[in-house]
Specification:
The chain crosses the membrane at residues 36-58. Keywords: Membrane, Transmembrane, Transmembrane helix. There is one protein chain. The chain has helices spanning 2-25, 32-62. It is elongated. Helix 1 (2-25) packs across helix 2. 87% of the residues lie in helices and 0% in strands. It is built from two helices and no strands. By secondary structure, it is mostly helical.
Length: 63
């Protein structure tokens, strides 16, 4: 299950970054869906890093 989530996350991140780069090169505005998924990926990454960092700190303190 974790592999499927990782592959999906990677696919969406790759698509969002490639689309944003193409729009930047062509000097076009981003679509609303692209901005939505970009912000969603940013929030997901930040949340996951905070949770994993907290878990690592907690496990370090406990034992």
């Amino acid at each position: 299950m974790l592999e499927a989530v990782a592959v999906t996350y990677t696919f969406i991140a790759s698509f969002v970054l490639a689309s944003a780069e193409r729009n930047r090169r062509q000097q076009r505005p981003h679509a609303r869906q692209l901005e939505f998924f970009g912000r969603l990926l940013m929030a997901l990454s930040l949340t996951l890093s905070v949770l994993l960092g907290g878990w690592a700190a907690w496990s370090r303190l406990i034992g």
